[in-house]
Design goal:
Layout: E1 2-8, E2 15-20, E3 24-29, H1 38-50, H2 53-56, E4 60-64, E5 72-78, H3 81-94, H4 96-99, H5 105-126, H6 136-149, E6 157-167, E7 170-179, E8 182-189, E9 192-199, E10 205-209, E11 217-221, E12 226-230, H7 235-255, H8 278-296, E13 304-314, E14 319-328, E15 331-336, E16 342-347, E17 351-356, E18 367-371, E19 376-380, H9 385-414, H10 436-439, H11 449-469, E20 477-478, H12 479-487, H13 494-502, H14 504-510, H15 514-522, H16 528-536, H17 550-566, H18 576-586, H19 589-603, H20 613-629, H21 631-640, H22 643-652, H23 661-674, H24 677-689, H25 691-695, H26 700-712, E21 714-715, E22 741-742, H27 743-754, H28 759-789, H29 797-817, H30 823-826, E23 838-839, H31 841-851, H32 860-871, E24 879-880, H33 881-892, H34 896-905, H35 916-926, H36 930-938, H37 948-963, E25 972-973, H38 974-987, H39 994-1029, H40 1044-1047, H41 1053-1057, H42 1093-1096, H43 1106-1111, E26 1120-1123, H44 1126-1132, E27 1142-1145, E28 1165-1166, H45 1168-1175, H46 1179-1186, H47 1191-1204, E29 1217-1219
Parallel strand pairs: 21-22, 26-27
Antiparallel strand pairs: 1-5, 2-3, 3-4, 4-5, 6-7, 6-12, 7-8, 8-9, 9-29, 10-11, 11-12, 13-14, 13-19, 14-15, 15-16, 16-20, 17-18, 18-19, 23-24, 25-28
Helix pairs in contact: 7-28, 11-12, 13-19, 13-23, 14-19, 15-17, 16-17, 17-18, 17-19, 18-19, 20-21, 20-22, 20-28, 23-24, 24-27, 28-29, 29-31, 29-47, 31-32, 34-35, 34-46, 36-45, 39-45, 39-46
Amino acid sequence: MWVSPEDVLLAGALWITERANPYFILQKRKGHGDGGGGLAGLLVGTLDVVLDSSARMAPYRILYQTPDSLVYWIIAHGTSRKEITEHWEWLEHNLLQTLSIFENENDITTFVKGKVQGIIAEYNKNHDVKEDDDTDKFKEASAKFRKLFGMPEEEKLVNYYSCSYWKGKVPRQGWLYLSINHLCFYSYLLGKEAKLVVRWADITQLEKSATLLLPDVIKVSTRTNEHVFSVFLNINETFKLAEQLANIAMRQLLDNKGFEQDRSLPKLKKKSPKKVSALKRDLDARAKSERYRALFRLPKDEKLDGHTDCTLWTPFNKMHILGQMFVSTNYICFTSKEETLCSLIIPLREVTIVEKADSSNVLPSPLSISTKNRMTFLFANLKDRDFLVQRISDFLQQTTSKIYLERELNSSLNSSDDERTFNLNDSSVPTATQALMTMYRRRSPEEFNPKLAKEFLKEQAWKNHFTEYGQGVCMYRTEKTKELVLKGIPEGMRGELWLLFSGAINEMATHPGYYEDLVEKSMGKYNLATEEIERDLHRSLPEHPAFQNEMGIAALRRVLTAYAFRNPNIGYCQAMNIVTSVLLLYAKEEEAFWLLVALCERMLPDYYNTRVVGALVDQGVFEELAREYVPQLYDCMQDLGVISTISLSWFLTLFLSVMPFESAVVVVDCFFYDGIKVIFQLALSVLHANIHQLLGCKDDGEAMTVLGRYLDSVTNKDSTLPPIPHLHSLLTDNGEPHPEVDIFKLVRSSYEKFGSIRADVIEQMRFKQRLRVIQTIEDTTKRNVVRTIVTETAFSIDELEELYVLFKAEHLTSCYWGGSSNPTERHDPSLPYLEQYRIDVEQFKDLFNLLFPWANGAHSDPLAVRFFRLLDQNGDALINFREFINGLGKYREAACPRKYSSLVCNYWPATQQPSVDEWMFLMLHLSLCLKCSVILLFAVKKQNNPDYRHYLKLWNQETKPKRENTKDLTKLNQSQFIELCKTLYSMFSEDVAEQELYHATATVTSLLLEMGEVGKLFSSSGRRDLNLDGRSEPSMCARDVSDPKISQEPQDLGDVFGPAGLENKSSPCEDGKGDEASELPPMQDIKLEDSSPKDTGTSSAMLISDDETKDDTSMSSYSVLSAGSHELDEKLQCEDIADDTVLVRGGRAHDRGLPHSTSIDKDWAITFEQFLASVLTEQALVHYFEKPVEVAARITNAKNVRKVGRPLLSTSDYEISLSG
């Protein structure tokens, strides 16, 4: 390719000059190609790989130099000799003579540079090349990556790193390439080449570790192999990027959410020295935004714009706190360097003024931000204050315009609506406007004043906190806030503070009217989710009075149904009803909805989907934490299998289903403030408190009883609510009740003992467990699929598993590199196992070429398309694994008729195309008798023996009852027959018995052509008799195949042997005279030899027997086609048939004068029975189709082809390959 001219000082170093003229030099890099320079070439090639020179330098280049200059300019390079030679020839033909005109060398240089740049600009314009942010070095590395590993343009390289790959005990220095869908490694050392390709979706474990010999190691494990990489320059960056890419792959397996590049990133500066790609910048920005959203509980679509160090003036302690300011599209946030000291969230919708304050020595570069609730925040020590103010002003302007637009829309929609109030009797009112607890607050008869007094003191403490630290979303969040939460949130403030700490308040504020619209849209909609919701409504806190009547039940129904309508991927999951009912007790209906959104989509990701993946992931995290923090108990719990049982119910319901209600809500208080770490801490505390009892347990039932009794005894002595009966699902024994455990002491103890657990550590552990859980789910799906269909097919379990891996890999390929259908339509994890992965026709073509025995020649794709249509029973243009296996299974069996029935099915008219099973019903009966019948019929001209009629009558009577259940079949016309013949010829290419098969095919073709010609003659004579007499003799009535009504009639014996007049039934051509033909007419009455070309206007060939055809010395031993008309010769004389194929007419056709036509003979047709009978006369064809297919060998070959051809579709990963 042409490149912008760059100067080169040493033109001869490490390069070999191959061509030269006064102005240009063509060079080849040492160490590349044949004759690479011996030892020096090996060293150069090795250095290129190790030092990344090969990423910058293609193996061929063209330099420009003026005769008197020492400076060279590279103007083109190429990856192949053909490419560089084309550029060289263009220079010789178009520039050499022009350059001789110039007198000044500077003018020549300017001209050459301008010409090359013009060529580049013209190319980019013609090929619609868009500018991107990738540096030239990275573009060259990306091109090398695609060339080395055979990747298409759609596979985007993210970054590449120098490292060593350990194969056994030998390290190989090379480059690790990380692309969107693959991890690849390449090494070239002293003539030895090593390649490795692993698909991210196949990785089961990815970890960073250290050993005594190797301090920094990245270990990549798949189901079959383990790969170790070391000696990284920046192992942390490499590992983080690998984690992120593996996470994207797992997300795609989980819910089909593939990677889409963010095009809105700011462009890099032009002279950026970094080799980082636009994709790497995109992924870095995503990772930062994810951490930012998790830290401040912001909506999922919030993107971080930037962050900077600064100080914040805190009026409550009169200090400047050092920390970081984060700015995004809709928020300004701050967190102190010391994690728990102070954090702050300022939504831009609340901001009124942003201004630069006067600088001073004490307060350099200050920035003042004022909000609507009259709070002012003062930041200082900002490095680039002017730029920051401009960015905030831009975002503020966008936010203001959004608010005005929303207000206008709401005012126009709600101008005629009064404020909504909850009315049980008014079914048109969608929502409740107050928490259910306020409506059903029950006071015990003997109210304890000390409890009410304590509740009042809590409320006062929170009010004092609001006064000092601010109230609402802009409140300063400090260690004191956490202390108040641990002491318990007052009943009346719980809903407000849950909204605040969870971040749900932000989503509710930015989506006014959203919930009401959802309720309205979801009313009256019925699906699986609504059925499950209705079933669980009365199981949600049934002991609470709020859910013992229709008011609470209706509110719960609306919230759950609205969320199922909002997020159909989750829909509804058990345990959501319990959590939502508690939310409704303390929050208004709309607030409860947004709390549920925050819970399901941000705070407990993937918990409430059909496979509770998030809960299983956190279950694995909990096991790791238990091993670390309570090691003496871990082994015992693992042996009993208790951890996996208890953790699922604890995590899914946030302890609400296993603790008394008034105690469990305290856990929910802490959860909304501190996140999932609270649940882990509390679970570890429960185990730690029962460590001695659990160590003495003999089985899981006893352990569950111990834990159940302990959790039942957790009480909240400060609760002002009357005791609510606790319906614990765990059975307890009849022993003494466990001593009461104070919930506040338990929570505080969990913070003291296990408070060191960090949120970022939990996320790291979640990633590790997510790989394991999702791959386990995939393996379970595979086993279930195989177990379901193993009884339906002759394949072994191992073969089915290998085929499933290939089938799934083909689906993933289309997700990576695009396909003819939407991946989300083909992969739906909520469907039954067999339906989860489906492929379309384009993916089926690839598998057909790899696994099916007939995938040869140019007709492979059309044959695959037709066969796909047969397998697609429901007509949705997709096939599942069962349909695929059923199709492949047809070819494994040794039954000859089943195999070529599938072949012929593909060429039959689509409107009358039967299924393969329907063909089988026909063939299994016919295959026993047709062979002798056809030979008998074709010998009738020489043997004037009337005994054949007896056999024909018997066979005709036998076939009638069996054919009543088969589908009516139309005849195969000439064009379809031609395509069938082409396919047959292409199938036999490179077969051991190739010549014998070609000869047998020619013989069969001859027979079928003659049958079609004979049938055409009788059809013509039948129509002529109808035209002349208005009727025809019953014995000679022929069906006109052009009449759809007649062609769709069941075809009887006459269809097999040619003329329709040989039917032992009444003729449909004559009314009222059908009974006259009760017997078959004598064959002598049919004068075939009298039908000459002069009479019929068409060519008729003499019937020849099988033996005559084989003995004809004029026929080629390689391939002979006997044609009944000249146009067939033209159709079959094509590139799909070998060059030495001889096309002759049957019998002595060359003695006759034949008319020539350029169109397909529409009257010519054969039936399937004729085709079947003809094929069964040739033992070579019978043996070919009866030969069993070695599926295991084809599967192995398919995997090898993937490794060599399209690497992506390897079943797991490439073995390391070395070549000298």
